[in-house]
Amino acid sequence: MSAHTQTLSEAEVQSDAPNLFGSGRSYEVRTFGCQMNVHDSERMAGSLEAAGFHEAAAGEEADVIVINTCAVRENADNKLYGTLGHLAEKKREKPGMQIAVGGCLAQKDQSGIVERAPWVDVVFGTHNMGSLPTLLERSRHNQQAEVEILEALEVFPSTLPTKRESTYSGWVSISVGCNNTCTFCIVPSLRGKEKDRRPGDILREVEALVDDGALEVTLLGQNVNTYGVEFGDRGAFGKLLRAAGDIEGLERIRFTSPHPAAFTDDVIDAMAETPSVMPQLHMPLQSGSDSILKAMRRSYRSEKFLGILDRVREKIPHAAITTDIIVGFPGETEQDFEDTLEVVRKARFASAYTFQYSIRPGTPAATMPDQVPKEIVQERFERLVALQDDMSWQENKRQLGRDVEVLIATGEGRKNEDTHRVSGRAQDGRLVHVGLAEGQEPPRPGDVMNATVSDARPFFLIADPQSPEGFPVRRTRAGDAYDRAQAESCGAPTPASAASGPVSLGLPIRLRDQ
Predict the structure, then answer these.
(1) Which terminus of the chain has fewer Cβ atoms in its 10 Å neighbourhood, N or C?
(2) 159-398 belongs to CATH 3.80.30.20
(3) So what's the architecture of 402-487 in CATH?
């Protein structure tokens, strides 16, 4: 642990909350990184509001800026310190402004952040998010930076207050940490060994989200399908999916991300037999080369990976399967890369999130021999992207004429006002831009439209109506919750196309223009 003063327990932090030492002060949380970070940011915002802070209005310079960092890729450092450099000038212009840095990079760099950026007021890690309000007050009172990094999780983050970004879709963390030792990944050293929540606690949180209006929940874990290992039930994840499927009012269940080595047939059966579990699977491949998978310490091989996809498609024929792939891992030969391309052809991914390998200090891969030259990595990356974009387009064209149920979302369509469309996700997670009939009232975020796919592009589908009545809209509890949230924020209800900020439904966020 690194701290300028003694560490507060989470219980002590909560007991301090009624002091409301943030009263009258505004905050902004900026999130870098994965879905887990997005969820963590909701906890940070909830803790701040419980202490009396309020979210800064659009265009307002916040009194407190919190940066929730990622440490997975090479540019994470550059992104953080570039942002901090920009904020240094703003802080000079705004007396009393505070800057806090949390998340994985804070857990890794600790007091080094204050050494590089001495205008930062608070640094906190992945294990003590609930301490944020108290650390801010302590820094303001003592007029010095506060650095508090815990080496182990004391209280599960889901016990903290939450300010959700969406009224219709929610994140629920079922585990934190990871027991794997992938040679390219720094996450286990920053988030610790896997810790699992009790099933009853998870289901109660899901029920609470549904009671608040949510139609959709995404279950989160570093390796979501190893859930239960801590309390000795290797079938716990499939059981959890089935139990969540029994919750009345919950229409869509998603999860991310599973590990291929632990993906078992009981989970496939639970997906196929539970109507509210969506026909979508995000399964990280990382490489199609067995020798590279071995070097990565990924405890599966390409044949096993493809076998899982075959069994999923046998039980769930219309499942959309997406993946993550790393190009240029140390020692990757041209043949290794060709093996990856061949697996991509066979897998028929709906989409893939492709990354160029970058060295992360502290990981075994960082010191491996045969680091691949940047120009070779770039050339291979471009070939992979071209192949996958073509595969995505082929898979999307197979959706032409299909009827889809679209949950209308905010921020998914950049040109909706010009095209007279609204946007959202189909049950399989595909982005769909749905046309409105002339004079048709736009649905609210959280409402559902039943539409027919009329056109396909590599990164989205289009469903334009063929009749003057347009596609039917089902008004939902989630849409009602959206209206209530708008009213409580002193804003009139707005069409889906006018709202801001994408909501990722269990996948990394990737927006494309229509």
Answers:
(1) N
(2) yes
(3) Beta Barrel (2.40)
